[in-house]
Design brief:
By secondary structure, the chain is an all-alpha fold. It contains four helices and no strands. Helix 3 packs across helix 4. InterPro entries: YqjK.
Amino acid sequence: MSRREREARKQELLTTIQTQRMDLISCQQQWLVATSRYDQLWSAAYAARRYFAMGGGVLALWVARKPKTLGRLVKRGFGLWSSWRMIKKMIPR
């Protein structure tokens, strides 16, 4: 392979790499737009982790004192969740 052929091949490869980089940049922007909502939710949950930890400790102490209460809370939570799903299905969009 002569020097000119190597230079031509090198230039061809560099052009291909540059095209791929531009494609990646455009895909990255689309990906960031598509996942921005999840990023915001994750940031909010991460910021509230201290409160989740404190709430979990309080809940553990409360359940240790009154174990039957946990069962009732789980049943009520499931009932509320089921009701919410049913209401969402009934509301037209």
